[in-house]
Amino acid sequence: MPRKVHYGVDYDDSYDVYEDYDDDYADNYDYEVEQNASETMAKLEADKSGVWRCPICTYDNEDSMSACDICGVLRNPLIKAIAKMDIGGVGGICKDSGASVMAKSLFASLPRDMAKRTILFEVQNDVSSSDDNLNLYNLGNIRGTFQEFNSAFSSQNHKVNIAPFKFDALSPDDLVSNGLRSVKSKSKGNILSKKETKIQVESELVAKGPVTRERRNGVSENDSASGSGNKSEVFDTRMKAETSSSKSRKEEIIDEGKTSTSQYNPEKWMIPDKLDAGLSQLNLAIVGHVDSGKSTLSGRLLHLLGRISQKEMHKYEKEAKQQGKGSFAFAWAMDESAEERERGITMTVGVAFFTSRKYQIVLLDSPGHRDFVPNMISGATQADAAIIVVDASLGSFEAGIDATGGQTKEHAQLVRSFGVDQVIVVVNKMDVVEYSKERFDTVKEKLRTFLRSCGFKDSCILWVPASAMENQNLVANASDVRLSWFKGPCLLDAIDYLQLPTRDYSKPLLMPICDVVKLPSQGQVSACGKLESGAIRTGFKVMVMPSREIATVRSLEKDSQVCNIARAGDNVTVNLQGIEGNRVTAGGMICHPDYPVQISNYLELKILVLDISTPIVIGSQFEFHIHHAKEAARVVRILSLLDPKTGKTAKKSPRCLLAKQNAIVEVALQTPVCVEEYNNCRALGRVFLRASGRTIALGIVTQIIKREE
Questions:
Q1: What is the DSSP string of 306-360?
Q2: Which of 577, 515, 585, 571 is nearest to 541 (CA)?
Q3: What does the pLDDT look like over 472-488, one tens digit per residue?
Q4: What is the pLDDT of residues 17-38, one digit of tens each?
Q5: Distance of CA 302 to the CA centre of its chain
Q6: Rounded distance, CA 96 to CA 502, Å?
Q7: How many CA atoms lie within 13 A of 388 on its CB side?
């Protein structure tokens, strides 16, 4: 039957277009047509005896022929011709006349037995038959179903096995059922061998009842109308199975290319030699409240150690006096931009290098203003240890540790969340309070209590009273007698007391990109950052994430000096070639080509809520900071509250999160970021949540959730 085409208008399925016509009129019309046709044919037969004329080509055929010899049209009526044929047919029953050429060729090799079951042929009008097995709809044509021809021409004990038609490649239906897997992934022989089955047609089943077909996928379904319920059950089961298999295949595609780091074997040059006489590199961040003297302390320290020449220092002093800021001369050694000098505050992280007796120090001078805390996070996240600078003057220290706007507390919490567990507290500007021991003890007692609450141990905290402006207790013991009561080390000696953290030399290369410098004229891009794990050398092939571009290391720079090899813990500049500048971005990652870092925008976090006034609820939006990347994010789910003492679940699915609470939440990021679970890589698993210019929560990545789009 022709398929009805749906053009967007909904019609009633039960509506019959013929209901609008008069049934009596249709019956009379059919009767008149049949009567006129029979009278015409009778006249033609009466005109010539022994012959009959074809109604199409008007050729006169012999009376014994059932079809026209010229055009092949069957004779109408056919019963008269059938009755005269000497083939044993009885009452309009015939075997040869109704079989097509294809049917005869299929059964030509069988013994010429009489049919077990014959096919009835009748004169057909332009109406469809009510017999479901015949499915006739032809004007003057007589056909039978394939099963009837099979039963008619097969012997009783013979079965016909017919191989199904096979494509050279998978058909579109097979591609859909197989989860849209590529045909190229398998050879054609393998595909056909798995899909080949045989369709067995047995004459006994044809005679007994409706035919059962076995499909290529092995699922049998009944052709009869009564089996529609079974069909739906088979279809539902099949769809569930395909859905589950499709999901598993999608998960495999998501995880494709991610190789376990346990299979990684480092090369010999990646592991440092124990006999290496070179100094180890220590990344030291200087943090604290605004105007506590961080940049002045850094500039004075660099000048005393010879990193800033006397000529350059004289230049800074002259420029500072011209703008009426003579006390900022040492700070200008770190604050080089015009805007920073005009405003008198540090806005970006300044990087400087100097050498102590034990370490090669990378100094990270962080901004203290609350507006530039994101920059502080981006730069100071590289730190191995920290120097917390506090102002000893009356009122300034109290403002720094104030819960609402003090940056001393926030910086201390952030530094601890970076993984830093060793700090040096420099009580600066002691000259303002006349080097008072009582003031120093007061500052020490208040700040020690807070640092303990952040997780710092007393044995990992060093206290140094100093004055950067008067050069007291920086690179040597204090010369002022008013500071003679302090018997501890100076700042430079205190730095040598710090211990290096454990380096991951044996893991694949991972280097978060802190800054990017593009040199189009030379056709290279420079990426700055700290190697968190692995090693890198000149000529090494690396993958830049998230662009997944492969580049070649042209050269390496450490402390502005060209080097051949850099290992975990080193802060280096990597000059890349073979990659476009827009494919390397700050917040990205340089990693081993065979072990790329994961990329995701849906994460499960374990967080600690800080002092907040507005509760965190589902849908809360905030800034998401991880290593050097910053993205907009929102809370999708609050899974559970945790007991702060035991870490076990205290309450499931809370409605909101309040201050000082630990919780497990799921967050969705606006753009995917390079991330690893905290258990696999700590530096890439620490996160910071900020809103309204304040840090509202600290946390770690417990799970990277892969969602199917």
A1: TSS-HHHHHHHHHHHHHTT-GGGTTGGGT--SHHHHHHTS--S-EEEEEE-SSEE
A2: 577
A3: 999 999 888 999 999 99
A4: 444 444 444 444 444 444 555 5
A5: 46
A6: 92
A7: 32
